[in-house]
Specification:
By secondary structure, this protein is of the alpha/beta class. The protein is about 20% helix and about 25% strand. The strands form five sheets. A three-stranded mixed sheet has the order 2-1-15, with helices on one face.
Length: about 260
């Protein structure tokens, strides 16, 4: 199946910096291990490349400990890219680090530049619309700015809710195909996916909900065998990547790339 929501020629990633030990986290469960993070990042890039996509790996930036989570800096759509305005003050500068790379690729680049905040982790592009979850990082003013731009490009934006205590909307969900969502039961219970086919991550495997569909692959975090089995049985080709160290910074599979 080919569709702009799951079919990509390119991805941009950023190699983790040694400063990841200072990365933001909701709960401190120990410092991420740099070597482990690099090994996992290399495996992630290899998985993306195995689909035939051109994958750019940007240099680490020590000044921005969360900069490997490039997804939060921009929304890439077929018509153009939108530079975000992160709600985390320590991450705002990451956007200007990403901008020149997107300018090499896109002719139409817009920015969230009013008072609003929005991070890419709160945005799920499905086969029919753009869902944006309000969260501690994304507010209504940010969504309104995004909606104006996306509407210009022919997209519909729908505001939804990120469950309390969850970092980003996509911490709890992923697109598996244009009409199929992988979600925690908690997020799906909000009704935000009514009308879609929804696959629930099994109880106890909620951290598996952040995955990506990238061309013919579903790339998910390792260590969630029941979710992997469910996706395999549903017909998806699954690759699992160690997410141990990223998870210590509340990061996952979607956070590590911009895909377009
Ligand atoms: N550590 C990722 C974030 O909080 O944005």
């Amino acid at each position: 199946m080919s569709h702009p929501s799951i079919t990509f020629d390119h991805a941009i990633t950023r190699r983790p910096a040694k400063s990841i030990v200072d990365g933001l986290r909701a709960i401190d469960i120990g410092a991420p291990d740099y070597d482990g993070m690099i090994r996992a990042h290399d495996a992630y890039v290899a998985a993306l490349r195995s689909t035939g996509a051109d994958v750019r790996v940007l240099d680490p930036i020590e000044a921005f400990p969360d900069a490997q989570f490039v997804e939060d800096t921009a929304l890439c759509l077929p018509q153009g890219a939108i530079l975000m305005h992160p709600g985390a003050p320590s991450r705002v500068g990451e956007v200007q680090e990403m901008a020149p790379h997107l300018r090499e690729i896109y002719t139409d680049i817009r920015s969230i530049q009013g008072g609003g905040h929005i991070e890419g982790g709160d945005i799920l592009v499905t086969g029919r619309e753009i869902l944006v979850g309000l969260s501690d990082r994304t507010n209504a003013a940010g969504v309104a700015e995004l909606e104006t731009i996306a509407h210009d490009w022919g997209h519909t934006v729908r505001t939804v809710i990120t469950p309390p205590g969850v970092l980003h909307f996509k911490t709890d969900c992923s697109l598996m195909d244009p009409e199929t969502i992988l979600s925690t039961r908690k997020l799906d219970a909000s009704g935000c996916f009514d009308g879609y086919r929804v696959l629930h991550v099994p109880d106890g495997e909620e951290a598996a909900a952040n995955a990506i569909r990238f061309n013919d692959l579903v790339i998910m975090a390792d260590g969630f065998p029941r979710t992997a089995e469910m996706l395999f049985r549903a017909g998806f080709k699954v690759v699992a990547i160690d997410n141990t160290d990223c998870a210590k910074l509340d990061g996952g599979m979607s956070c590590l790339s911009l895909r377009f």
